[in-house]
Amino acid sequence: MDQHKILPFYMTYPLPMYYQREDTVMRDLEYLQQMYPNEAKRYQRRIAAILDKMDYDGSVIYDEYPDRWTLYRMSESIFRILKQEEMQNNPGDVSEEKWEWISDMIQILLFYEIYKRRHTHNRGFINF
User: pTM of the predicted model, to two decimals?
Assistant: First the structure.
């Protein structure tokens, strides 16, 4: 005879506890994000503003497995926008060697922002 352990009602629905843990993780990540260097913060805010235009239901950023090439092209287009803005504000202020580093940083910041949006977008609920 199997002995089934009787669970309290709140343990039969573990999803709310999962989301509380996820909220804690997101708050922690956002707190650490505030400690970014000033230049990284500036780029991150601009990337978030650009990504706002691509943030809609059915967007490629919410695909189960986003295509690597698409994400690369997205980071390249954001890089071109940021480079053009920087050249207008401070012409000749940044060397080409530093632009290569900035390109990598933009890609990392973009992937982080996509991660953050994927984990806070609708919490995985299906809307009928």
Answer: 0.72
